[in-house]
Amino acid sequence: KYINGNDLLDFGCGKIHALADILNNNGYNCSYYDLFYYPDFPKKMFDTIIMIEVFEHLDEPYNELLKLKKYLNKDGVIIFQTKVYPNDLKNWWYLRDTTHVSFIKEETILKWCMELGFSLIGISGDIFVLKCID
Q1: Please, what sign has the CA dihedral across residues 8, 14, 17, 22?
Q2: Does residue 29 carry a pLDDT above 80?
């Protein structure tokens, strides 16, 4: 329900760009990008950028959001899914994946929204929706 417009990007799609295929089969124009499998970043603007289980793999997620914002059309959105870290990290399974290098709390997402010119317009479990407001 948070997809904005028709031009979408599946950022960090992995080897199989299934989400982009599903969206394209449902009338959207969804490009895809993955640093390892599809490293040619589409040079165009997007209405919605989707990042499913990508955020935790980024060395500098703040800077990546800043870069991706440049590819958003007016009122564009970024939808990302990641686990926020709990108060008790001892048994948190997310830490066992050695490719996970960035962890975040909801408060940090709110702070970054203010700094980067986004509004947090939706949260559903571990899915966050940021709308570009400037």
Answers
A1: negative
A2: yes
Token pair recorded at residue 15: 């080897």
| Cα–Cα dist 17/105, whole Å | 28
Give residue-wise pLDDT tens across range 52-84. Answer: 989 887 899 999 999 999 999 999 999 999 888
- What's the pLDDT tens digit per position in 12-26? 999 999 999 999 999
CB environment 2-34: b (16+ within 10 A), e (fewer): bbbbebbbbbbbbeebebbeebbeeebebbbbb
Note the pTM of the prediction, 2 decimals: 0.92
Nearest to 12 by CA among 33, 37, 40: 33
Residue pair 40/65 in contact by the 8 Å Cβ criterion? no
CA atoms within 13 A on the CB side of 61: 22
* Residue 57 DSSP one-character state: G
